[in-house]
Amino acid sequence: MAKSIKNVGILQPPLMKHNTREDTYHILAGRYRLQIFRELQPDRKNIPCLVVNDTITPLAVLYHILEDQRISGALSPMEKAYFFSHSLEHMSIDMAADNFLPIMGEKVQTNTIKKYISLLQLEPELQISVHCHKTTEKTALELLQLSSMERKSIHSIFKKLRLGGGKQKRLLSLCRDLAYRGNKTIAELLSEKKIRMILNHGETNTPQKAAILLGFLQKQLFPQSEEAEKLFKKKVAQMALPSCCNIEHSPAFETDHVSLKVQFSSWSELEKNKETIKRLLSVDALVKT
User: What is the reported pTM?
Assistant: First the structure.
């Protein structure tokens, strides 16, 4: 923003409310723009602004603020949380839902507003992470079920390993289940020696640490899956299939299904073998096997 204002000035003027009785101005939107402008041009006495008078209704003020923010793009979950927290100081939750949720592209449900406002319970660092989309809204809502110490502990791992949404969800799920099984907190779990060794290992990079940690927690939670993996690999080796064939099991051995992947050198090579493939996959052939 500083570079933009330096190059072309303020293209989106801050929004001010004029108090005619005291002849003062209150900033409704654009405080950061004003701050940067003053830093870049400290000798400038006048700054272009949009001004509304003090007879404007709270509903109209909120409409102005919302539209001002929407010019810069869709509101983040935290921006919605703070917007609704201010809105409810001036109107009922039903009125806020009817007036503002459609503008945000949300269904008109009061629970949506309650969900956003609940995010204000998060610690400041986590709120910033949600605002910057480094922690997903869904994960943030799940973190609210934990204590403050547990949230801080697992969020530090999110940051250290730079985990995306899917891996955040998986780590949270594994930690929550393991902590419950061991009758301990997530903070206690993540402070264990083996986990700290994985996180602080000097010869592995960040993606490798993430993979090793998730794999370690998976084995801790489902120790039987490691034995199943060993048995599966042994069976595959005994089949002595050519290198173009690959057998895979279902995720975490949730079912008994297995899949066979056959790689061909070209499309024409596949066409040459299509009749053989059809014959092998026919109902009669499967019944006989």
Answer: 0.70
